[in-house]
UniProtKB/TrEMBL annotation:
Pfam families: GST_N_2. InterPro entries: AsaB-like (IPR044053), Glutathione-S-Trfase_C_sf (IPR036282), Glutathione_S-Trfase_N (IPR004045), Thioredoxin-like_sf (IPR036249). It comes from Viridothelium virens (Speckled blister lichen). One of its GO terms (molecular function) is oxidoreductase activity. SUPFAM superfamilies: GST C-terminal domain-like, Thioredoxin-like. Keywords: Oxidoreductase. Belongs to the asaB hydroxylase/desaturase family. This is GST N-terminal domain-containing protein. Residues 1-82 form the GST N-terminal domain. It comes from the Eukaryota.
Amino acid sequence: MVLEVYLDPCTVNSRKVLAGLELLGTEYHYNHVDYFAGEHKGTEYLKINPHATVPSARDNGPTITESNAILMYAADRDGGNSAYPKDLQKRAQVNRWLLWEASVWFSSCYVYLVEFVVKPLLKSEPDQAPTIADISIAASMHLHKAQHLPLDQHPQLKEWMTERVEKLACWQKTQAAVEKALLSDKATANGIVNEYTQIQSTLNYTKDLSPKRTELYFYDSNEAEGIHEPGDDAHEVTIPDGWHRGQDFSVDKEGFSSRNFHTGFDKWEDEETVRAEFYPEVVNFLKCQVGAKQTNTSQRAPVMLVHCDYTAESGPLRVRQLLGNEAEDLLSRRVAFINVWKPIRNIVEERPLAMCDVTTSPRSDFFKLYFRYRERTGENYVMRFSPRHKWWYFPKITPDHAILLKTYESENDGCAQFAGHSAFLDPTTRPDAPTRESIEFRTIAFF
Ligand SMILES: N[C@@H](CCC(=O)N[C@@H](CS)C(=O)NCC(=O)O)C(=O)O
């Protein structure tokens, strides 16, 4: 009887069977099962092969699935030949390869076939929400840089890993232990940490020319002549990737931290709507994060100058300006000003924010910058350079995150009070990276 085969010759294992039967010289009857039309999942075919896979074969008995089993059967049925030797030693070698192919080789190659050939043909999109399958598959390549996995040759795989998996909070939360155990000493010894965890960039510090004041004028005045303006002391600094420390950073110790902050809000172009609808979200977020009882919020754009938004004097003054009668009572308790900085729409690649670890920047490194307006003078802190400053940033931060930054603290008990920060040019930013879209809220937390 002629062997009935059911297959689609364009699929891996179907081709294997067709080519193998030709090699063996086996006569067969071909039944086409259209893989791309999904016929292998149709009711008729499932009666032949309930596994819904091609190929399968029949020879007046139960269905034979497994391409290698079909070939072995065909060879044995017809008495065998050199393509499937009868000699036991020789056959053991062929069997070894057949088993290896089925258990190891096929699955290693098949994933690439599916990703780069089958999925584009079927036009299937990646799943939107991550599942435990994403985590499971990513785990084997979690040190892909150190593993030297050739991801550059596989852009979709790389994008999935770096843009989807590595941005997940659960992934970042579990990263620190891996770094510590596997990458710390070994990594510095072979340069791995340097390769991907820190960059060099220039930050604009300010020279301290006291007693001459550092000022900016926002109106025409003769007094503006010959003033000392800020940002005249650029220094190249090393800025490590803060994601490795996961959620270790805290606004009360280092003066900053990164936290998950997901929002469904998207009407960023309308300031009134931001105020009415998004401010309450910021307030709730902050209450949860720092345990504040009450908060007050306003909005501003970030700058390329090492600075801190408030001084020991301007913090309480701002509370009085904003909260009038209530202010004295509120100021009798702990007050902290915390900026909430957040990407909107896209991942931030261009001009990210660098934060200086407060434990490396004593109060003596800060001095005042005066803002001269016609009717009043404002002030904040700028910083003089020190090689002790330790900077951090959160590269490619997503809109599902926010950076919290302490810009004033009433308590003087070792808790972080003023965190210096600056936007900067990241030399690793892609030339075609989208323009940064971020928003910064100045909030006041009353405890
Ligand atoms: N181990 C089986 C694998 C069969 C298999 O997975 N075939 C693929 C086509 S190459 C299939 O039918 N997949 C089902 C699907 O994609 O839905 C064999 O060697 O025959």
